[in-house]
Design brief:
Number of helices: 10
Largest sheet: 6 strands, mixed
CATH class of the largest domain: Alpha Beta
Distance between the termini: 64 Å
CATH superfamily of the largest domain: Periplasmic binding protein-like II
Structural class: alpha/beta
CATH architecture of the largest domain: 3-Layer(aba) Sandwich
Helix content: 25-40%
Mean pLDDT: 91
Radius of gyration: 21 Å
Shape: globular
Strand content: 15-25%
Length: about 270
Amino acid sequence: MKKLAAMVVMGLALVVTAKAAMAAPPADTLAEVKKKKVLVAGVKDSLPPFGYVDEKTREIVGYDIDFVKAIAKKLGAKLELKPVTSASRMPQLTEGNIDIIAATMTKNPERAKQISFSHTYFFTGQKFITRKGAVRSLRDLEGKKIGTAKGSTSEQNVKKAIPSATVLSFDDYPQAFLALQQGKVAAVTTDEAILAGILAKAPNKAQFEIPKVQISEEPYGLGMRKDDTKFVNFVNKTILEMEKSGEAKRIFDKWFGPGTPYHLQRTFRITADK
């Protein structure tokens, strides 16, 4: 009986070890992607124009997607897209389910302790969507309910900027905007470029606005596993080349330029971070 019990325990241990080995992320993502010829990117799928499902093609498209497409092409790899949320994207990366995050992710010191970031490939600032004429300054939001997304820097920034406000965190920004439309919150807060995307798609957009009230600067980086140096260097080299060739600006103009509903100015260039 003891022998049988020992064999069962040993068998279970082997299964657990095998599963752990399967789930473990590669030590060298660059080599692994080149070997598999597949790059798996975690992206948003309901956040135009960064990442959303195109109604005609049913494919995920957007600014973030075009950047990882360019990186996959440079690697000679097929691009596989996996939808993530603000809360799930870092766990998905560290657990080895994705190779890179391209999902409107702000670079900050806290996150940089857990993952590595590329050079800044998009730059924006955190603002609000409100009912038209309702907000002129931060004071107008004191003591009010404000919606944002779980696991986002927006969540932390607004708590610091307006301590008296009640922050309601939703799974994603479209849900937060729905709460604003229903009168459950007085404002939705996140990065201006994301807010512009949400507002552009709203059927009743004339009722809302993005006031000139900014509470932070938000540099976006592509996220990779900590100390995955070869892959980080490859990605950085690629996006610097995209800036130099004009491809990065063409991608920006495609999604944010004069021919789009967003009309944002490109106030940044991709440079090597200091």
